[in-house]
Amino acid sequence: MIESLAGSGLAIALALLGAVCFAGAAVLQHGAVAAADPTYDDRPGKAISLRGLGEIARRPGWLAGLALAAGGSGLHAVALVLAPLSVVQPLGVLAVPIAVLLTAVRTSRARCRA
């Protein structure tokens, strides 16, 4: 019984850390796309050319985001080994509000510098 609780606790911690990684990846990659094209428009129907996509894929921010997403996937997978999907998956949704908070912190710092 104690072993299953310890496994679930570790799984919860790993799932939360994975959510933070996914949120960081989203923020970094969005920043890389926005920095690549000053006229960037994220409205529906707008597209990036293949050349632009290639340029974005070589940006350090995009690559760091890709590494964070891979790390988050690994953490999520290990959490799923330790605990059932019904425990781990709801914690992954926390990536959305965490990304919002990270973006708010990032944009407020950018405004302070300007």
Write the layout of secondary structure elements.
Blueprint: H1 2-36, H2 50-57, H3 60-82, H4 85-92, H5 95-113
Helix pairs in contact: 1-3, 1-4, 1-5
Tell me the major beta sheet: none
Instruction: Write the H/E string, N to C.
Output: HHHHH
Quaternary organisation: single chain
* Silhouette: elongated
Strands, count: 0
Which spans of ≥5 residues are poorly predicted at pLDDT below 50? none
As for the number of domains, it is 1
Quickly count the helices.
Answer: 5
- How far the N terminus sits from the C terminus, by CA atoms, comes to 56 Å
User: Percent of residues in beta strands?
Assistant: under 5%
The percentage helix is: over 70%
Radius of gyration: 17 Å
Instruction: Name the average pLDDT.
Output: 86
- Could you say which structural class the secondary elements and strand pairing correspond to? mainly alpha
